[in-house]
Amino acid sequence: xxxxxxxxxxxxxxxxxxxxxxxxxxxxxxxxxxxxxxxxxxxxxxxxxxxxxxxxxxxxxxxxxxxxxxxxxxxxxxxxxxxxxxxxxxxxxxxxxxxxxxxxxxxxxxxxxxxxxxxxxxxxxxxxxxxxxxxxxxxxxxxxxxxxxxxxxxxxxxxxxxxxxxxxxxxxxxxxxxxxxxxxxxxxxxxxxxxxxxxxxxxxxxxxxxxxxxxxxxxxxx
Length: 222
Fold this sequence. Notes:
This protein is 34% helix and 27% strand. The protein has helices spanning 44-51, 77-82, 99-109, 115-128, 144-156, 174-191, 202-207, and strands at 5-16, 19-29, 33-37, 59-64, 67-68, 84-87, 162-166, 194-198, 211-216, 219-221. It is globular.
């Protein structure tokens, strides 16, 4: 696979729960911003799960950030995920620890033990989303918009090559949704971070135009 490709799939088949995708051919270059659309249950989350190696590809060829998805072993999955930032639909913040330690947890989980590096990375990420003053706050004391920005900061803390965002604006009001997308666009432009964003928000797609791929009838369509 070429060096400048973040996601590559050729004739890939996937299934998870009731969603089945077949004959996926997809190429996303480093530094691209791509929207992933499709009805609920069409397979968007299935595709994203395959990209971060949560489910296996059943046939075909797949590579993400230099890792072969077909024969990746469990030991290498954390190494792949160091190159990824994942923004989950349901946020998945840990309520038993403050914002700083939510972000630090990601760094420790991927093998970082240097306390100074952890502190620097966490504060840099919080500054990028404008919430450096919330480091000591607990998630349950934040607004939904603030929590989503913290989730975005957590996704960025490892300085990933690729950010996978699963419906990051799904539960937000239009103004906060726009702020989140602007942050993703800024990250994409300034850091050349590849962004793959699953969304139902066609207003966002219309206002901030980029490449769109769609899950339809078990296929991925440009």
